[in-house]
Every structure is written in structure tokens, then in C-alpha cells.
Amino acid sequence: MRKLALIFILAHFLLSAQQHQGTYKNHLTFNDTFFGNEEAYQVCYPKEHRTFFYSIFFASGIAFMFFCIIIYQKTKHNKALRSSNDVISEKNRSILDSIHYAKRIQTAILPNQNDLKGLANSLNVLYCPRDIVSGDLYWVHKSQEDIYLAVIDCTGHGVPGAFLSLLAHNAIEQAIIEKGLKGPREILDSMNDFVKSVLDQNNEEGSKDGMEIGLCLIQKTSIKYSGANISLKYISNGALNEIKAAKCTVGSVQTNVIEPPIEHFLELKKGDRILMHSDGIIDQFGGSKDRKITSKVLNELIQQTSGKTSTEQLSSIKEFFMKWKGNNEQTDDVLILLYEI
Fold it and tell me: Are residues 115 and 48 in the same domain?
């Protein structure tokens, strides 16, 4: 057994001497490692191995370079994107600041406490702009025994509608306060002339926008009403009635209009109510079937809530509207004016 081991060791040394003679460098063999002779040799990889490792190193370098380029480009793109977003955000803030300031101006033309003095127990208003500013406008003016109530729905909503609402405000104030006109029909005629003139609607290139309006003159229990696409509803003896408005608008060119608004006279009694509204509430989508509220549904609601106080009645209408709308986007500006005689 010992002889066999000695023969094996001798053969190993002879083989090692043959493989590593001179200055030739070869791989460290298993035998070198097994017998502890690895320190006696300088290890060198074969040429084909060196080429392989160089290729790996070169490919890794190229990949790293491309990786750095991609990271740089992405960083540069993100920086440019952040810069663009900052510019857009700043412009949006500037636009929103301007619109909020416009809201302050629009709020200033709405009836104030002085306008509503003495009407607090009689007048209730539901005013829900779709956007920050509104294309709907209500106007109240009290002069001695005369009370003027107007609901105006301008073309569009938001900023364009708000511009037109300023025009509507100027038109009605010019007709009633400056000119001293009394009858609702002649007031609407004057407003129509004013709007057409300002918007240059007699010119083909002029604006074709306009506004719908319902206007009432209240003299104690007597009502004079004239309307362009905004009807007058009134509750008397627990029953809901309606005076239809003319199918036209104030301003704009309407070739299909046969006659302008006419003036209606109505005699009511204490406790009766009149109501005018823009079409925003009846055009609102929602409910279980995602449909419009419609005039029929609104009229039924007005009838059902007529036994409540006017404040409670309008609160019930608002609650119904909000529940109907649910998570849907508001379709249009909403305006309801309710007055109790």
C-alpha cells in the first residue's frame, strides 16, 4: 500500500515537472491544488480565455456607458418636464387667481343686503354656479312700492357666461334705473336693443350670443310678468300654475321668432308664491337611470313641497337636486328664485 502511494506521488512529480518545465506557464491543475503545490506555479489563463474575459469587460463597459446615457437623458427629460409642469402650474394659478377675482366682481353685482332690505322674509334664492363664475344672474330692485325680480340665464357658463351676465346687468339697470321704464315687456325690449348694439348683432360678424330672462314687477299683490324662455310659475290655493314665456331670447338673431315677449298680468293674494328658474336644474343628469330631472319632475316636487315654508321648500328642492346629481358633474349653472307674496 505504501509502495503504491510512493509510486503515485513520484508519477505526480514527474508529470508536474513535464507540464511546468522552463518558463512555460499553464493552468493550475487539480493535482497542484490537491497536493498543495499551487504556490509553486504562476497561473496564467489561456489566450482564448483572456479574449473571452476582455469581451465581457468591453461589453460591460459599453452597457454601463449606455446605462449612463439613458439615466442622463431620463434625468434631463424629467428636469424639463418638471420645469414645464412648474410653468403650467404657475399659469394655472394665475388664471385661477384671475377667475376668483372675476368672481368677486360678479358677486358685487348680485343683490346686496341693501337691495334685499325688507325682502328677507319673502325672497329665497338657490344659486349654484357650475364653475367659479356663472352665466346665471338674478336681479332685485325695490323702489317705493315696486319690486322687480329677474332671473337671467346667459348663453354658456363659466367665464363666457360671466361676461354676458355683466352685460345683462348693465342692460337691465339702464332700462329700469336710467331710463325709468316700468313695464316688463318694454324693459325686455330695451335690453334686447342694448345687447344687440353692444354685441354688434346687426352685423353678420357680430356675436350671436344672447340670454333668457324672466322679469316680474310686483306691486303688493299684483304681478306683471314678461319672459323670454324663462316661464313664471306660481302657487295659489295649493295649486301650481305656469305662465309660459315667449320662445325667444334677449339678444342674438332669431329668424324663427314670430312675436316678441308679451306682458301678463296676475292678481295673487298674501301667502301665494311665484317661482322662476334657469334651465340648469331640469337639465341635470342623475338619478337611478342617469336621466335629466325634467320640468315634469321639478313641477311635481314644487307641488309636493308647497305646504312647507318658502325657506323649507327651497331647501327641499336643493336637497333633491344634490341627491339626484350624486357624483355626476353639474351640467349647468343652477338658479331658482322663490318669492312669497
Answer: no
Question: Looking at residue 38, what DSSP letter applies?
Answer: G
- Cβ atoms of 293 and 318 within 8 Å: the answer is no
Cβ distance 148 to 141 under 8 Å?
yes
Residue 204 burial (CB < 10 Å; 0-12/13-18/19+)? Answer: exposed
pLDDT digits (tens, 9 = 90+) for 262-275: 999 999 999 999 99
Question: At which residue does the C-alpha cell 350670443 appear?
Answer: 209
Number of domains in the chain: 2
Following DSSP, what letter does each residue of 117-174 receive, concatenated?
TTTTTTEEEEEE-SSSS-SEEEEEEEETTEEEEEEEEESSSHHHHHHHHHHHHHHHHI
Contact by Cβ (8 Å): 20, 31:
no
Would you say residue 117 lies in a domain?
yes
pTM: 0.76
My answer on whether 120 and 88 are in the same domain is no
